[in-house]
Request: fold
Amino acid sequence: MNAAGDRGPQTGPDAAVVDLLGVLACGELLAFERLAHDAALAPTIEDKAELARMAVAEFTHFTTLREHLVKIGVDPAAAMAPFVEPLGDFHRRTAASNWLEGLVKAFVGDGLAADFYREISGYLDPATAALVSEVLADTGLSAFAVEHVRAAIEADPRVAGPLALWGRRLMGEALTQAQRVAAEREVLTALIVGGTGDDRPGIDLNELGALLGRLTAAHSERMAALGLEA
Reply:
């Protein structure tokens, strides 16, 4: 595999793997940054500590990806560079204005991204797929978010409506971000639809429709778990 700084316009499964690990590393680093910020919005010291713990776990995932990229001869910064702007733009457009919005974003937005990357990992070699699964492991955020959002709705049912709208906006923004990344990084798209130059055929339109259906269903399940309408 070429070093990331020499990648240029190369195509093929190696370039796709580097892109996938690069976007994951960038995402994990931003997740650490966001959770550390959200800890400042937490209402109790216990909540602050728990979010800080989860932020550390996200940074550990980032470190795992960075070390793997170095191991395979890729500059982590170069692998992450194409995704800094689109992921940063997504987080700027969906900056949470309060504690509950931050929890919904972390649970719904990050969950949708994780589902998508897990789907892509099914077209990778087993070792890379296992690495992706490892760094996408739940840090405990799911149960934490569900508990606190549902408790807030029970205390004041009026918060459910705005949070539901927020969740729908996150879904739309996440899809827009995915389309942008796919348009700019063709090797990632090729992992799913084929054309990577190896013996993996990719998926046909029916399978792609099923994939999108699974992503939408998982989003609806997460919203329901929070007590919100998708």
